[in-house]
Amino acid sequence: MAKKNAHIGSSFDDLFEETADLTEASAVAIKRVVAWQVSQKMENENISKTRMAQLMDTSRSALDRLLDPTNTSVTLHTLDNAAKALGKTLHVELV
């Protein structure tokens, strides 16, 4: 009898869980979306990086970290300040 393939039927998430990379991959995916949303809103509203940093009461380098899609070390405080600067609210949810 043929040996059954253990990988048939598994999901991409299962692979990440097996290699312990699911948490990091999820964090990077979420950060990419947030960075994209902030930069799109800035572009649509014609807000420069310098002006956005002023609105957030932070430095340009802190804003650059927020806009860097691979930097997952952003605090909720920074995200909340960015949302407020753009006239939005931050919504965080455990699912």
From TrEMBL:
InterPro entries xrefs: Cro/C1-type_HTH, Lambda_DNA-bd_dom_sf
Domain of life: Bacteria
Protein name (database record): Helix-turn-helix protein
Entries under Pfam families matching the protein: HTH_26 (PF13443)
One Gene Ontology MF term: DNA binding
UniProt domain HTH cro/C1-type: residue ranges: 40-87
Organism: Arenicella xantha
Lineage of the species this protein comes from: Bacteria, Pseudomonadati, Pseudomonadota, Gammaproteobacteria, Arenicellales
